[in-house]
Amino acid sequence: MMKTMPRFTFSLLFIFFFHCSTIVAQAPAPALSPGPAAPPDIYKILTKAGQFTVLIRLLRSTQVGNQINSQLSDSKSELTFFAPTDNAFSSLKTGTLNSLSDQQKVMLVQFHLIPSFISLTNFQTLSNPVQTQASNTYEFPLNITTSGNQVNMTTGLVNTSISGTVYSDNQLAIYQVEKVLQPLGIFAPRAPAPAPAPAAPKEKKKSAASKSPVASVDASGAVGVKRNGIVSIGFSLLLATIFL
Fold this sequence. Notes:
The protein is α+β, with helices and mostly antiparallel strands. 32% of the residues lie in helices and 19% in strands.
């Protein structure tokens, strides 16, 4: 009896440790906490959506795209962007974009950007003119109205509507539009320059008649002739008339 006791104890210990190790091996690994989500990148979003090649090029050349991504890196920042398609740009008059200055191109892109997040159901709450990142003055008016589920907008030169949602995440909303929003401050026809004032009439030269001899009559009826500034008086003629 004394000899079998250690073997029995050892067997119990072996079973105990084997059971414990099995429980530990089967325990689930602790879940890793997810890191902060990366901010949205407007270049990646538009590239993935397709049909925004011209807009992406314009965002890069004006650096407005970089400014948008910089703003979105702050989780408190909100933006709404109206994205014209390649067809929208192709419908512009040939050479329109090339005729704009660098500053006008920046203002054009910023005119499509609203500094707040607006869902499709909240456009009806906006007050006109809507403030954009370009300006809300009379030169850059953007008026937005709704009709049922349709969102319409006008710049005074262009009327269009939202044709679809490209992206929305409660911080950034990108909506597709089929026309480029053309603000009055850049595309309004300019008044023609006033015509130059007519030239003043030239002073007329003295006529030849003013240089010819001028007959003059004095109080006595005598006639004299003024030639080259010298006046001869017909006094002798007067005396001859008296004595005749």
